[in-house]
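On clarity, I found the account of how folds are encoded harder to follow than it need be. What matters is that the chain and its backbone geometry are given together, residue for residue. For the editor and my fellow referees, an illustration may be useful. For illustration, here is how one protein appears when written out as sequence plus structure tokens:

___
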Amino acid sequence: MAVTLTDLTELIHQRRTSLLVDHEREVPVELVTELCDLVQWAPNHKRTWPGRFALFTGEGRQRLGDAFGDDLVDEGYGDPVTGDPGKVDKARRKYLRTPAVLVVGSASHPKENLRRENLHSVAAGVQNLLLGATAAGLASYWGSPPLNDSKRVLELCGFEPDVHILGAVYLGWPAAEVAVPQRPPATVTVVDA
């Protein structure tokens, strides 16, 4: 089956960043696994397959928030003198906003340029995942982690200690329509001579 540019454009324009979800309806693990497989189809120069994934549901979401919160405290956040207690409190609660939260990481590499390529590959793959979530009828939101190298979260996820945490993808079934955000047109510089 051929997909036209128009079909792809419509799918991209349908994608919304949204946390307006049905909190009672679970997201099947099998569906999330299929979405993670889409990450593997992003360009990956040396075929290092750097994507790392950990799905948190139920009480696991609170464990994720507590792990981030504890590492933030270790980093000096939360202390009224040295840090912002609001950031720690928010980290402890925010993963409860949707029924499923997928932590996405990128494997490191001894060569700096390949470490960066791994990051870019996984980030490109997350766009595949988000578009797949839209096609499956899910609402999604890609959030930045409070720490990219949270030791407790890396351990909780079962990731290698040098994995870079790219973000948390919140997933759920939409509970409301979200307006289409306006986007500026792309500016393209053409060099033809």
Observations:
- The chain has a mean pLDDT of 91.
- The helical segments are 5-14, 29-39, 60-74, 85-93, 112-135, 151-157.
- The beta strands are 51-57, 100-106, 139-143, 164-172.
- The first strand starts at residue 51 and ends at 57.
